[in-house]
Amino acid sequence: MYSIKQIATAIYATYLTNKYGFKVRAVSSNADKKRVRVEYAETLLAKLGISISVIGKEKLNNSGPYLLVSNHRSVIDPIVVEMALRDTTIFGHWVAKKELYNSFFFGVFVRNAGTILLDRSAKQMTSLFADIKENVAKGDSIFIFPEGTRNKSNSILGEFKKGTNIIARKSNLDILPVYIKTNANDVLMTSLNKRDEGLVIEIEIGDIIPYEKKARPLEALYKSMFGIS
C-alpha cells in the first residue's frame, strides 16, 4: 500500500520528468542539453531532500571524451552521475534500453536528453556501435551501466554484461570510472517513506584508465579501481 506522500511524489516526478523532457527537446547543443539535465537533477533531488557528495572531484577534467562506467542500484543513479559532473563540460550519451524510450515516465526525457538506443531484442548490435562511433567522432562521451540493469541483489556489484567489454574496445575512449558508494535506492526509499531531511549520496570518481589498458576485462579494472572484491 502506497502512502499519500509516495503517490504525490510519483505524480510530481512524472510531471517534472516530462516537463524537462520537453525542455531538452527544444534545445540542440550539447551544452544546453547538459544545462537542462543538471537543472532537472537539481530540482528532483531538492524535492527528495537528497544531496550529492563527490569524492575525488579533483580527478575530473574537461579533456575527454570518455567512456564513463558506473554501478547501478537505483532509478536516480543517472542524475547522481549528472550532479557529479555538474561543474565540468563533460557531456555524455547514456546507453539506454529500448524500454525506457517507450516509457510513459521516462520516454520524452530519454529520447531527447542525449541517449543511444540499446535494443536487446536485436540480433546484432550494429546500430548501437554505429551510434557510439558517430557521437565519439563529435567529441562526446559515452555513459554506460555495465551491469546492464539495476542491481537488486545484496551483492555490492552485479556481473558486467559481455557487451560492455565490446563497447569498451570499440569506443576507443579512455575510461572514467565512477562508483556510487551509497546504495541510492535505500536513500530514495528513506526519502519517500520517512520524509527525512539531509540525506546524502556519496559518489567516488576513480582515476582515468587509459585506453591502452583496456585489454583487461572491464569488470576487473573497475573492481580493482574501487577495491571491490
CATH architecture heading: 3-Layer(aba) Sandwich
Terminus-to-terminus distance: 37 Å
Helical segment count: 9
What's the alpha carbon Rg, rounded to whole Å? 17 Å
Under the CATH scheme, which class? Alpha Beta
Approximately how much beta-strand content do the residues carry?
15-25%
Q: What structural class results from the helix and strand content?
A: alpha/beta
Strand order of the largest sheet: 1-7-6-2-5-3-4
Principal-axes shape call: globular
Count the beta strands.
7
Describe what you observe in this structure.
The protein is α/β, with parallel strands linked by helices and 229 residues long. It has a single domain, classed as 3-Layer(aba) Sandwich (Glycerol-3-phosphate (1)-acyltransferase), CATH 3.40.1130. The protein has nine helices and seven strands; from the N terminus they run ααββαβααβαβαβαβα. Strands 1-7-6-2-5-3-4 form a seven-stranded mixed sheet, with helices on both faces.
